[in-house]
Amino acid sequence: CVCVCVRVYTHYLCQPPTIVKQSVKDYIVDPRDNIIIECEAKGNPVPTFSWRRNGKFFNIGKDPRVTMRKRSGTLEIGFRSGGRPEDYEGEYQCFATNDLGVALSNKILLRVSKAPLWPKEVLEPVVVTEGTPLVLACNPPPGLPPPFTFWMNSAMTPIPQDKRVSMGLNGDLYFSNVLIKDAHTDYCCNARFLFTHTIQQKNPFTLKVLTKEPYNDTSYNATDPYGGRKVAESTPTFLSPSGTESSKMVLRDEQLLLECIAAGLPTPTIKWFKKGGDLPGRKVKFDNYNKTLKIINVSEEDAGEYVCMANNHLGSIRHSIFVQVKAAPYWLDKPSNLVLAPEENGRLVCRANGNPKPIIEWLINGQPIESTPHSPSRQVLGDTILFRSVQMGSSAVYQCNASNQHGYLLANAFVSVLDMLPRMLGPKNQLIKVIVNNRTFLDCPFFGSPLPDLRW
């Protein structure tokens, strides 16, 4: 079909539906707002829209809280008349349809942000001996997304952190060795929740520090924090992680965080190495007084054995972390639209890589290709579909889904079978004015099927 637009001299072919805007795959919403799930598509004729929720047809007309925007597939779910946002959690997928086929959005996993209360608990005073290590556990409530944690006292003053005292990646507060000055009644772990902009505070820890000799406030100084008292020194041991080795899995293009926190007196120094190679200098960063190693945009060559070493003048200790780099699917050759003339041959290619290697699945107009009528002109060979001697009437929108346990990719590609004489798509008798000795560009948009040869 040829769709003639209002603009003079310009003709457009009917266009299959194409998704141009959609919500993110992992979509977390604020429970205080209306829920908006985006799906916009273009096409000629203008597409109509439908949704599936958790794999089943979502009947929008039967739910008074759900409306769909005009000439759009975007859903808006309101709660002025009551209802719980949690009732609408689930997996949504948008279908945009016109005469030429069906295009699909990604599967949108909708979840409602949660800021649960800290469980009530009575914290007994923590009693430790001067010079020994200590861990104060935070254990924040499992919010969605996870909260940002930090330590303060009851006056909302941050707990000073340094080489000796610092917060780990899990939110716990680690003391490589405890000093008398650490004795306080209000070590409070706080959890800040992103969506609700609220801060929740855990009941405070009271820390009591025992000494073997009397303590004199006037004797404290930075170079001799023990005031002349004899405190037993100790060789380094690891507070986190435990044991001599551990493993870590990270996804390609994400951020790798490795952590080693050591106990000992004097406070140990942390150093990092990579066995069999150098640390990737341009991508590596050390945080938390060298206790955390951070690598941005991880790639496959960042896999391997990382070693952290803690040492003081009494000795040293090592811990090996074996890093595996896996990968959600990523495109090598994304399928693109294909225009064929009757009796022509062609191919659709959908190549993706990942670790593990992705599984490739093909759909036609949103239906698994295995469940559609057999076509003698079509042959599926894994990541490729071959078309031979295609016929009019076999146009459709094909979907390629590449998935592994870490994620998926979805692409729409339109296969159009057309028999059209060559035509110019630009305006007729166009006058182009140029400046002498300057370059110019002459455009000649055209279309035809089979694809015409162009001559000037």
From TrEMBL:
The processes (GO biological process) annotated in the record are: axon guidance; brain development
Q: Where in the cell is it found?
A: Cell membrane
What are the residue boundaries of the Ig-like domain, all occurrences included?
Answer: 17-105, 119-206, 236-324, 329-416
Q: Which UniProt keywords apply?
A: Cell membrane, Disulfide bond, Glycoprotein, Immunoglobulin domain, Membrane, Repeat
Cytoplasm as UniProt keyword: no
GO CC terms of this entry: axon; plasma membrane
Q: Which GO terms describe its molecular function?
A: cell-cell adhesion mediator activity
Q: Which PANTHER family match?
A: NEUROFASCIN, PROTEIN SIDEKICK
What protein am I looking at? Neurofascin homolog (chicken) a
